[in-house]
Specification:
With about 150 residues, the chain is of the alpha/beta class. The protein contains five helices and five strands, in the order E-H-H-H-E-E-H-E-E-H. It has one domain. The strands form two sheets. Strands 1-3-5 form a three-stranded parallel beta sheet, covered by helices on one side.
Amino acid sequence: MISGGPGVSRMDYGCDKSLYTGPPLNLCPLLPNAAYAYTGGEQVNGWENTTTCSAKTPLQSDIDKWAADSVVTTGGNYTYPKTGMSWYFCVTPPANDSNGQGKFLIDSVHPKNVPDVNCYSGVCTSESVWQDKNAFNAMVAEMLSQCVPNHE
């Protein structure tokens, strides 16, 4: 169960929006064009010891570092044949960049199930999907029904 994001799935795309050339990130019917670019780069620059996240022309060395340190990176193994995965997102406007960042991971993983994406809007805000009692109750029901040994 992943609630929002992760917001660092593709830091290179988040710091330099022009690097992503794919289609709109269709997270769910409630969010067919999810944002993935960071509104400011200070936090990523602090984590990564870089200086140009969200700059007009980021340094190539910074881009390389963000790409290498992202959850989704070249050479990563995202195959989990014995593990089910589900995502829960709050998409109440204005939805933040962690939703689009999460879509990069969703599109990369190969769990035992088709990744289950659940979007909620109205009660929750930002990354706090569990503020919505329907989301919380759905998550609990899913965990109870699917909590079975998978790695024996």
